[in-house]
Structure formats: structure tokens, C-alpha cells
């Protein structure tokens, strides 16, 4: 027996623990297999609302497939998150007065491992609170022993086949984190800066030469050329100039990549401190000069020892003193910052390890072009292909301590570099000279290198395990669009290289969660919604359902606490509906025939809901499946059939049939609701299993089959809808002219010459009168009787008596609404006529405005029509 009000705090703790125990995938079963691997959260902190969205979508898919009879393996896990974790732990140690550098590598890693253990436990507990159906026995970590072997094996194979190389190359360098960053780890933004026009003289001491525009004057210390476009006639006779302050004579080279419209059309070439300059220098065989160290401190000439930005200021001052600075202009600069600590990144040449991507990417492009890996939304497919067709070699080394240490050693005797571990065997001696004196590579691999192996490494690769054979390739990857390049692309590359199969067949990309105004959530704005706080307040089922309804594969999500509160009311609706059924239904018959139109109507609606929900599930349209089920349960079942059943159960002839219908619809509804809100549905189903003889192979709803119920009764659907529209119209007119819900009014229903409709109305008059709050007369013909206010809706014509109606107040109220609606209509129309708005606004925003304008127009016409009708009665 369900008692009291719905209270998630009494239900969810039990089921969250139960769910953590009961999902264990069996690779030996003959059942069809389905596999998802979770995007592993970083061990840097708590789960945020984005994690809640991502995990909920995966859980809904997993639960649906499980109820369809698949053997589902949903693999959980965590990522070691190299730079991010080292940064967080270093900061924690600094609070205690300790520095990573003073501790040394081994001692520091002990602290990180303690953090890992604490963080993993916390993440696991947080995931449990979401009531997820992961297989905790399959839990993995990107630095566990098995995973270390997989990473070493992957590196060794790529290294042996010549795809990994070490070389001096220009990289994004973070002076704070003291490591190289891949292009994807740099966050770019446009900021206000300066453009400096500097004279490069023809001779030292001369005030004649060419002016060069730059945003980074401090890098002139490393200039080894000036470049101009070959067609730029301004510089056709200029071949040499001097770099000011250092007075280095350099060539003026011609290169088509120079933009003649930027600055003066002449640009300085600093090969070791600019990406474009590095490539130009290689083509023209120019030397490079390193003028800055890894701390962002100048190491060259008179400015040695100065921070890069202090040096900039000093160099500008010195240029001004010498009369070599023509002018300084305000200029918008594209600034790159470290994604972790937000320090401005410095392009530096250093020795790094790289993975050749061009050849490896070809198959990864092909499988997406041919939909062997299908992005469920084309816009993400196009984004992926655009990036992959222009891919650069991937810098895979990081100058940090936490991570997979690169398994390469350098012989101290002959300098030979050799693999020291391939996941199976270790080597300590040099294969070239036999010396056992060697130094191990200190760098670790980029976190995304190990993450790229995730879909097959978590299943046991490189061993040919039962899980790998049964569940690989995996079926669908659910992820955010922000890591398509970081992770999705690289998993496809690695999957194809090491397994010769795609790592997953479908990619579901969801948007970011923003606040209700569409702004990005941040602590500084104070608009962050913490999923754990929301679960505490409203329960995981409410949060999950909210996220599912709002989820989208093409746009970001606007989320407010009010939305979650509204779906908490839906959970309460489910609870109260179940309470009503369990209290009123004893010994329901499983195989029964409905006896009344409402019973046939609700079964036909249920059948339609199941059919549509299945279609949406198969197309991964999670939001549409959720809304379809929500609309059916709240509107059709709770608002209408349950209320109708209260009348039907008073009639001995149809009472049992009504009870059978109530039981069947509730039990079936719990099954279709279960993927979205597993705790409340499991709890109610468990109660029902205890009271009724529910046939199921499992004691848990999670393993009960998803409904396969078909009841095609188009005539019943049509007449059911017509009868309900009659009750709705009577209620609407009553409310419109000031009657209370409890007021009984006289109503007329005009059936024209439709004999079937007249018969249906007569057979269902009892519940129609009760639910509409009216004494109803059924009239043949189409003429509305004198003194009765007609409806304005389409379909069956309904009218209620004007006696007792507050017509003047109603007209006044409608007039006020009409004026406000017309005012808003004009405002939206004006905005849509604004060229500036149309050029700058997002397409989505413009479409929302057009839709709003259409809705307002319809409302204006309706109000005008109703005022006209009511005025005729008020003036009598």
C-alpha cells in the first residue's frame, strides 16, 4: 500500500543502492548485445549539471534497450585528467604550505593517488544518487593496471610503425602549468590589444626603412626575416633591413601567405615564437632564435631576466626613445589561453613527441562520410569532417608528472632511443650497443591519448576477452559537442587502427546546459545549478525527467529550478494515480475486453503512445519520447480517464471493466515511464507486484519487457476525443464568463445530423455532466438556442446558458488582454522588421520570434471573436 504524499527521500536511497547491485552484464548469454561506455568524468571534483544530463541520456537508452531484451553493458569509469588533476592537487598542497617541486615526483604522486581514491569514491556516490543502471563490476580508470598495459601497447605499436616521432616543433606552451598544450587545449577569445608600427631601418642609425606592424613587439628579439607579398610593389626594391634594438641584418623575403592589407603589408618573421612564422621559416630555410624560456622569461640580450610582458613595455619605451616607433593603434587580438589555468599561452619551440595524424585520419573520415559511424545530427558530422580534413600532427607529450609516462628510454652511451615497455615486456638495455645505462623519458602522454583507447581498452584490449568479443564495437556514444575533436575523433582513429573496426556505431551529441536566460552557468554569475542540491530538494527522478524533456541534439538547453519543480509535480501525479488505482482495484483480470467508449479510448491512446515512444527511442529522440509519455499519462490518463472511472465504477455493469482498465493502463505506463524515472516507477511496481499477480521473469521492473501493446480503434479514438472536447469546451466557456468550477450550468450540445455522435453522447452523459459541471441537453441540428453562449472552438458546437454569467467583467478582462496582446504583437513585429536584429540574432532566436508572432496573431483573432460574441449577450 502506498501511504502519504510522494517523498523522494524515502524512496530513492533504497533504489539507488539496489540499482548499484543488480546490473551485471553477461558476455556468454545468447541475447542480443548492447554496449555504451560512459565518457569518464575527471577525478578533479564533483559532478556538475552537464554530467547529470550526459549520464541520464545514457541511462534512458540503456534501460530502454534492457527492457527490449538486450544484454546491456554500460561501462562506468573515471579519467585521470593529467594536467587538470596535477593542477588541482598542487593547489591543495600549496594551501598546506607544500610545493610540488620540493616534494619530487614520487612523493607528489603519492598525494595525487590519495586524491584519486577520495575523488573516485565521491564520484561513485554522486552517480549512485542519479539512480543509474551502470555495471559497477566493469568500473575502469584510465590509469588502472590493465589500462596502463593497453596504453603502453598502443604507444609501442604506433612507435614501431613510424607514426610517433620526437622533434623540435613549435607548440602551445603554458608558462604556468609548464607544459605543452594541444591546439584543442587552448581557448581563444577576442580581446582589446595594441598594434605597434616599428621601423626596421636599411642601416643602423638611419631613420629610413620599412615599417612593420606587430601585436607582440617583445618577439622582435628573435626576428630572422621580414616578409612581404611578392606582388606588393611598395617593397619591390627592398631586400635587406636591420632588426631594431638587436641590429641584426635580415633578409626581406617574398611569400604569398602575407596579407598586403594587414598593417603596412610587411610582417616580421619570428620562427621560434609564432606558428605561421615557423612554417614560413621552414619553407624559406630560415634559422630560428629562442628568446624566451618555459617560464615566459626573456633569455636574450639586454632584456634577459625580464618577464615577457615587462619586456614588451621596456622594448616599446626603448623604441620610442630611438624614434623607431611610428604609432600605436587599438586593435582586436585573438588571445589563446590555457584551458585549465587561463594563462596566456606562448608559442615556443621545444622537443616534443608527436603522432602523425594525416594518414591515420583517412579511414576516420571515410567511416563518417559513409555513416558507418553515424552522427545523429548532421551539423556535428559536418563539424567533425571539417576538422579532420585539416588535421595537424598531434603533440602527445606533456611536461607533467601525473599520467602515463612515455615508455621510451635514451641510452647514455650511444644516444639511441628505445622502447622500455610494450604492455607485455620490459627492456632495460640498449638494443643498439647493449648498454644498461639509460635515462627514462620524463614526459607523460597527453590525457586524450589514453582516453582515445577507452571504447576497447575498458573491454579488456589488448587481450581478446569475452567482453571485447561480445560487446565491441559499442553501439552509441553520448557526448557534448565541445569534445568532438578532443575525444570523439581520436577514438575513431584509434579504434580503426587497433581493432580495424569502428569504436561505436552512432554518436549522440547533446548541447550545453545554460541558465533560463540562455547564459552560460558560472560561479561568478551565481547561476550554477548543482545536480546534488537539486536531487536533495526534488529527487533524481524529477531532475532526470526535466533534463530528458529539454535535451536536444542541435541546440543548448535552458534550465531553471522552476522546470525541475514542475516535473516534481509530475512525480507526485504518478504517485497519486498509483495510490488511487491500488486503493480501488482488487483482483484485476489480465485478459479483458473494454466495455465502454472511454475504456476503448484510453487503451487506443495508450497503444498510440507506445508506438510513438518506440519510434522516438529508436531514433534517439529522447526529449520527444519523454513528452509523448508525459502528455499521455498526465492529460489522457490522470486528467480524464481516472476521473471518468470514478463514475464508471459506480455502475455494477461496467465497474470491473473500469478497474481492469485502470490496472492495465497504470502497470503499462510504469513500464514506459521507467527509463526516465526509475526509482518511483520501481517502487510503485514493486508494491503492485506484492498485491497483484504480475507476470514477470524478474523481480525488478528494470528487467520487465517494454510494452508491445497494440489496440487500433480509430473510431473509438475519434469519438473519445469528440466527447472530451465537449467537456473541455463547457469548462472553458464557464471559466470565460466567470462561473466557478463547482457551479452547475445548463448546456446544449449540437450534433447536427450525426446520429453516431448523438448516441455516443447519450451513452456517456453521466461522466460528461460530472466532469463538465453542467446539465447537458443533446440537440439535433446546428442552431444555437436563444440565450446560450456558443463555443468558438472547432468540432462539436457547445453552448451554455448566459443566465448568471458575468459578461461585462469578462468583456472588460478580455479587452485588457487584447490590448496587451496587440502591444506585444507590434513589439515582436517591429523587431522582426529590424535589419540589425535579423543580421545579428541567432537563427533559433529569429524562429522563436516568428513563432511567437504567429501565436499572438491567433490569440488576437480569438479574443476579438469572443468579445464580439459576448457583447451581443451583454447588450440584451
Task: Describe the structure using short key phrases.
876 residues, alpha/beta, Rossmann fold, Isoleucyl-tRNA Synthetase, domain 2, Isoleucyl-tRNA Synthetase, Domain 1, four-stranded mixed sheet
What is this structure's SSE topology?
Layout: H1 8-22, E1 33-37, H2 49-67, E2 71-75, E3 77-78, H3 82-95, H4 100-103, H5 105-129, E4 140-141, H6 145-160, E5 164-174, E6 179-181, E7 186-201, E8 209-214, E9 225-228, E10 240-243, E11 248-254, E12 266-269, H7 275-284, H8 308-321, E13 325-338, E14 346-355, H9 358-369, E15 374-375, H10 378-388, E16 394-395, E17 397-398, E18 408-411, E19 417-419, E20 438-440, E21 444-445, H11 447-451, H12 454-457, H13 466-471, E22 474-480, H14 484-499, E23 504-510, E24 513-514, H15 531-538, H16 540-550, E25 557-558, H17 561-584, H18 597-618, H19 622-648, H20 655-673, H21 678-691, H22 714-736, E26 745-750, H23 755-763, H24 765-772, E27 774-779, E28 788-790, E29 797-801, H25 807-832, H26 835-840, H27 843-874
